[in-house]
Amino acid sequence: GRGKKPSLDEAGWRRLWRRHRRWRSTVSSLRSGKRSSTGGVAGESREVGVASLQARPDNVETRLLKYEKEFVDALLENFDDRIQNHRVALLLRKVFDFRRMPLAKTPTEHNLLLNWGDAELTELRNTYFPELSVESSKDEALTMRIYVRENQELFFQNKDTKDPSKGRFLALAGPGSIFEKLFSGSDVCSKPIPDILHVADYMISFMWQSCNGERAASHINLVKSRGRVLVNDETFDCIVFNTYNLPELHETNLDPIIKRWQ
Fold first, then answer.
1. DSSP helix/strand/coil, 59
2. Measured between alpha carbons, how far is 120 from 89 in angstroms, rounded to an integer?
3. Residue 192's closest CA among 225, 245, 147, 253?
4. Which of 27, 91, 107, 221 has a CA-to-CA distance to 5 between 20 and 30 Å?
């Protein structure tokens, strides 16, 4: 019960009393500064030796990096097999990733650039863009690559605008980028390239990250109300596409729409 003392026999009380006396004796010795059994003054610190290290201090960083490398190697093992990329993504990267292209003005790299990505572009056309001409698309792609090679210095930007020493990168999209320039007019390259820009537009709008898929799924759930349960797939795809890509209602000029409807 509350406040009840533990029961001890006579021998237990004697042991407890001896411990108490030893504790009081130790406290008194510390307060009075008496010498301890080791020959020193209680409370006084002395150097009794130096512990040897198995490894020198300058090797600690090396050892830690070695342990970290083992963990990283385990994570990266078969990484490409676990993270799947769609075939279309690999094809588009080959055709439009100028950072991987041989853009140096040497005979060897020029010969590589002439047919760079042609096989992947043919597969893209046959699978996704049957309305386009294969030869026309290849010719326009070459025109695009030559333009980027000749004007690549226009599209290099500093990684850190406040610290140029961090290096530069070739901007593919965004302000001052390659695709912004290519889409700015039909007279950018030596001739118009509408077919390859049509494929590029598909590439730029492609949803790469998993978060994009989650956003699309959330939008689909909002669109698919009870009244649209029986809508066929093609109509539903059109509704989702329009509601996702069209401007907001307050940003839309309704006069042409009303006129056409009337």
1. helix
2. 11
3. 147
4. 27
